[in-house]
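step=predict obj=Motility protein n=56
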Amino acid sequence: MDLVAGVQQSVAAAQQVNIQYAVASKILKTSADLQKDMLGQLLGSMGIGNNLNVEG
């Protein structure tokens, strides 16, 4: 039974890590999108790059 409990704990830990990576990825994507929008607004306010590609 200890083996089964150990495997279950390992699976739960792996799922938790996957969730953490997914959340971190979403936060980074949201931050990148926000930075892209802010850069576009800044450049647009200066009349630069109406069709500028700001993806890195």
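step=describe
The mean pLDDT is 87.
step=end
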